[in-house]
């Protein structure tokens, strides 16, 4: 059965989203114009190279934002969780998507058409200010990632990737943190070969830092991961 579409005014993520400064009538207009879509694991939400027609708000599930390198290998440049907004940079810049968004598991997404979003940004100064702050944070995150890829060895980057997964997807009160993720996706986050990731995961497992069961990884000792990831800071 298809999940029921959330109402923008009562959305559980409203107060932490880009739309937290909206007036009630603006939320009503967003609600009337949006589409609510469900995606299965592996389905593409938007394609690299396509023109943006609006923005996407993740309501449920997990999403990876990735692009294909010149060598044909995928590189994951962002992980998105419930409450996150996707596709806004290309829409603002009026350029084609530079990456694709793909569901990592069963995912629900609200789509807001460009006309409605642009109208909101033009009319609500607080929303446009929050949008600029979001763009600035995204730029800072990209710069940090480039520095880490250039400076940190693979072992340290893998520890950092596991901590990123934990900080992004851990639900409050649920410990230890576990996540099912393919070794291909994990290697795309780290920026290395799958075989290298598997080797270092085995080392982490031997050291009692993680445990694995199939594709599921459970972090047993996040403090050790923090120590490993910060060795070259």
From TrEMBL:
<feature type="domain" description="HTH crp-type">
    <location>
        <begin position="152"/>
        <end position="223"/>
    </location>
</feature>
<keyword id="KW-0804">Transcription</keyword>
<keyword id="KW-0805">Transcription regulation</keyword>
<feature type="domain" description="Cyclic nucleotide-binding">
    <location>
        <begin position="18"/>
        <end position="138"/>
    </location>
</feature>
<dbReference type="InterPro" id="IPR014710">
    <property type="entry name" value="RmlC-like_jellyroll"/>
</dbReference>
<dbReference type="InterPro" id="IPR036388">
    <property type="entry name" value="WH-like_DNA-bd_sf"/>
</dbReference>
<keyword id="KW-0238">DNA-binding</keyword>
<protein>
    <submittedName>
        <fullName>Crp/Fnr family transcriptional regulator</fullName>
    </submittedName>
</protein>
<dbReference type="InterPro" id="IPR036390">
    <property type="entry name" value="WH_DNA-bd_sf"/>
</dbReference>
<dbReference type="InterPro" id="IPR018490">
    <property type="entry name" value="cNMP-bd_dom_sf"/>
</dbReference>
<dbReference type="Pfam" id="PF00027">
    <property type="entry name" value="cNMP_binding"/>
</dbReference>
<dbReference type="Pfam" id="PF13545">
    <property type="entry name" value="HTH_Crp_2"/>
</dbReference>
<dbReference type="InterPro" id="IPR000595">
    <property type="entry name" value="cNMP-bd_dom"/>
</dbReference>
<dbReference type="InterPro" id="IPR050397">
    <property type="entry name" value="Env_Response_Regulators"/>
</dbReference>
<dbReference type="InterPro" id="IPR012318">
    <property type="entry name" value="HTH_CRP"/>
</dbReference>
């Amino acid at each position: 059965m298809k999940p029921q579409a959330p109402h923008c005014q009562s959305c559980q993520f409203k107060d932490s989203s880009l739309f937290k400064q909206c007036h009630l009538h603006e939320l009503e207009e967003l609600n009337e114009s949006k589409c609510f879509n469900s995606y299965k694991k592996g389905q593409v939400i938007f394609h690299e190279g396509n023109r943006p027609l609006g923005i996407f708000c993740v309501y449920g599930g997990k999403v990876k934002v990735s692009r294909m390198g010149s060598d044909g290998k995928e590189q994951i440049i962002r992980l998105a969780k419930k409450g996150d907004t996707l596709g806004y940079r290309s829409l603002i810049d009026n350029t084609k998507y530079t990456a694709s968004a793909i569901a990592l598991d069963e995912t629900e997404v609200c789509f807001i058409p460009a006309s409605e979003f642009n109208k909101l940004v033009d009319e609500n100064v607080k929303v446009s200010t929050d949008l600029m702050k979001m763009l600035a944070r995204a730029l800072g995150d990209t710069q940090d990632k480039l520095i880490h890829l250039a400076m940190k060895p693979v072992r340290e980057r893998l520890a950092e990737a596991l901590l990123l997964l934990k900080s992004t997807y851990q639900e409050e009160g649920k410990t230890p943190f576990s996540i099912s993720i393919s070794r291909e996706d994990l290697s795309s986050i780290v920026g290395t070969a799958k075989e290298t990731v598997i080797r270092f995961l085995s080392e982490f497992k031997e050291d009692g830092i993680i445990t694995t069961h199939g594709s599921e990884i459970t972090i047993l000792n996040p403090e050790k991961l923090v120590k490993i990831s910060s060795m070259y800071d």
